[in-house]
Amino acid sequence: MIHPGTAASEPLYLRLMDRLYLAAIWLAGAAIVAMSLIIPWGVFTRYVLGAGSQWPEPIAILFMMVFTFIGTAAAYRAGGHIAVTMVVERLPAALQRAAAHLVDALMAVACLFVAFYGARLVMETMNQSISELPWLPVGVTYAAIPIGAAITLLFIIERIVFGEQSQRAIVRYEEQPEAR
Fold this sequence. Notes:
The chain is mainly alpha-helical. The protein has helices at residues 12-47, 56-77, 93-125, 138-142, 144-162, and strands at residues 129-130, 133-137. Strand 1 (129-130) and strand 2 (133-137) form a beta hairpin. Helix 1 (12-47) packs antiparallel against helix 2, helix 2 runs parallel beside helix 5 and helix 3 (93-125) runs antiparallel to helix 5. The longest helix has 36 residues, at 12-47.
């Protein structure tokens, strides 16, 4: 468990990752709220007004991409991702550490792959438009993929260099004792 001192005494990288984590949480949260408002509007216009709007579905998909890929990065840092540890927990301590290093390395490789090919996808589709929203390039809808992978990679680097960060006060704010 990380026991941070004062904010100024912590390494700059950890402080930056705290800010990036908060930004990712707020962005993912705003995306799910916006999506939750847009989808009912699309249903209302289609079934109540009898003339469906064309924009709610592509915009909701854009917000779902943001929620999924940016939110996943934050979930990784918070230790909220799915992990099957049944076999690893039965290994000797040295093999558990080796498995953890292997997982970090494989996660980094996966993030590099997704960031690289996701960025290529964004660039290759930037000149295409969505038929319902001709002003919105297709590449913009895919931008959350490489951005989320890059953020996750930064959190993996943080984990490799500074250790598990899921117990930081900023991540576990709901578990902190109230100031009296």
